[in-house]
Amino acid sequence: MWIFSAFLLVSEVWALPPPCDSEIYCTGEILKQIQTAKLFNDDKHFVDMKLTAAPEVVLGAFQNLTSKFPDGVVPRTELQEFLSTFFEEPGKEFEPWVPPDWRDNPHFLSKIADTTLREWAKQLNGLWKSLGRKLRDDVRIHPELYSSIYTPHPVVVPGGRFRELYYWDSYWVLNGLLLSEMTDTAKGMIQNFLFLVDKYGFVPNGCRIYFERRSQPPFLALMVESFYEATKDHEFIKLALPALEREYNFWMQNRSVSLDLHGTTHVLNRYNVEVGLPRPESFTDDVELAEGLSPDAQEKLWVELKAGAESGWDYTSRWYINSQNQSGGTFKDTRTSAILPADLNALMCRNERVLAYLYRIVGNEEAAKRYDQAVSARIKAIESLLWDPEMGSWFDYNLLSNSRHLSFYPSNLAPLWAQCYSQPSMGERALQYLKASGALKYPNGVPTSLNVSGQQWDMPNAWPPLQHMLIEGLSKLNSTEAKETAFDLTQRWIYTNWRAYVNYDAMFEKYDVNGDGKPGGGGEYEVQLGFGWTNGVAMQLLDQYGDRLMSRATGVSFLLETVLICCILIILLFT
Ligand SMILES: *[C@@H]1O[C@H](CO)[C@@H](O)[C@H](O)[C@H]1NC(C)=O
Ligand SMILES: *[C@@H]1O[C@H](CO)[C@@H](O)[C@H](O)[C@H]1NC(C)=O
Ligand SMILES: *[C@@H]1O[C@H](CO)[C@@H](O)[C@H](O)[C@H]1NC(C)=O
Ligand SMILES: *[C@@H]1O[C@H](CO)[C@@H](O)[C@H](O)[C@H]1NC(C)=O
Ligand SMILES: *[C@@H]1O[C@H](CO)[C@@H](O)[C@H](O)[C@H]1NC(C)=O
């Protein structure tokens, strides 16, 4: 049994903390034996199951069970029996909940000119009812029986295997909820994140204890900004600011790097999770990937995989660095923490700007100035390290080779979205870079990279948040060319989402850039439906461009159809 020998070696040497302290959900023999036996298609299944008895009882019973077998390895049938005695199916932590503030006909629908798209948007609005979740009170009373992290308010979840609240997904979910005029649900979600910052000092990746030592792209301040814009609720800003400040400090203290360049010290951010052991929810994937490595190298790889999960891009060739310290290699070469990502730093810049804006609203000019200065320092750092004057775009920075990775990713243009640059000419140059990159030639969205690696954050997948950030970034430029590119990408994306909805009766987490509505694939699990951020992004684009969008592929095919209809009419007239 290769898995056991490799894993036992590691358990002896690991120095870093485990993903959480639970000896059932994050470390220990039960997790190892059940995941290794592959009783379920997805490793997330087991770690989402509820205990039927106190953890000590379950641990004791398992110890008794293992002692019956000479090698301590419990056979499959006995494992299954053990599971059915001491665990319940996932989902037992929730009770049915339809958001009480859901409404039938939110105002944004009336802005959509195309009647087919308007009818579809109405159905998207209806999907919130199926994605609402409320935790049973038992999770608060008996947290030891669950891997769920208790939060006080009901939520809207992404969907599919993502059955709990997630961090960065929620930004687009929340913007969709606000368009659906569901402000109470939106507020409750933000309150949950504030609660999590109070508890952990940052927002975990999702509401499960096995996520409690890693975060995700920090969008909480932007959620508060969206909420304020929709409600003008000053009091809520006052309530939120201490947690926003605390989260910001976490990123600056625990996820930053200082670099000296020509006598100036720049501070930029990275993803970094110094936690050993495989991810409990993808346990066998992580063990199998680390097979054959030295214990030390295994632990390093697991640290980098967790940083990759923290980035939200799990997984991608974007994080590969080979033995020559250059971009490239294979999955085992994932080195997320050695990269200063363009999008994370743009997002931090937006956080700084939003914090200044929120402090100014509540009249704290001194704190606002502090964040103005942080924005200036961030722009200098981004322009010194991430901007490439020859290529005319921003890029990720490799800390091992001290150089930029010049491959295309939509995230390269995140400083456009964050408006985090000092010269307007940089924005127009970035547009020319985008047009020359080859990334705009796909009919169904902008690909996540130009590299087909088999990973889900690579070619041929297109992801809703990346489309949205790119479109919003382009729409903020002044040139007609930029604005038309933004609209063209919107039209392609909305057509893709709508086409897939018609074909499959579903909204997917990602799409194939060449699939004409086919969902994306690759990576560690089957494509998921639901889907929170997809619905949120579609609603935002329908709201913004609803007067022009059409439920057909492109302007070109519209033109062709018109010409065809005219020809038929002419033929009919003359026969
Ligand atoms: C484990 O075995 C001991 C000795 O047979 C027994 O007393 C104890 O109740 C068992 N524990 C569990 C949880 O079954
Ligand atoms: C951040 O780093 C500090 C100092 O290294 C450490 O004490 C603290 O626990 C870390 N915070 C979190 C939330 O991990
Ligand atoms: C890669 O980077 C590390 C850290 O900077 C350095 O120690 C190592 O020598 C580099 N390897 C190569 C092949 O350049
Ligand atoms: C692209 O993916 C292949 C594996 O399919 C890999 O060998 C290559 O190095 C990758 N390129 C980059 C830039 O990551
Ligand atoms: C767009 O034009 C306005 C008004 O002329 C100007 O203030 C702003 O800086 C321009 N923005 C960009 C990104 O070029």
From TrEMBL:
Enzyme class per UniProt: hydrolase
GO terms of molecular function: alpha,alpha-trehalase activity
Catalytic activity, EC: 3.2.1.28
Cleaved signal peptide residues: 1-15
PROSITE patterns in the record: TREHALASE_1, TREHALASE_2
Keyword Transmembrane helix: yes
Catalytic activity of the protein: alpha,alpha-trehalose + H2O = alpha-D-glucose + beta-D-glucose
Membrane-crossing segments per the record: 555-574
Protein's GO biological process: trehalose catabolic process
Gene3D superfamilies according to UniProt: 1.50.10.10
UniProt keyword list: Glycosidase, Hydrolase, Membrane, Signal, Transmembrane, Transmembrane helix
SUPFAM superfamilies reported in the protein's UniProt record: Six-hairpin glycosidases
InterPro entries listed in its UniProt record: 6-hairpin_glycosidase_sf, 6hp_glycosidase-like_sf, Glyco_hydro_37, Glyco_hydro_37_CS
Family according to the record: Belongs to the glycosyl hydrolase 37 family.
Name of this chain's protein: Trehalase
Source species of the chain: Chanos chanos
Gene that encodes it: treh
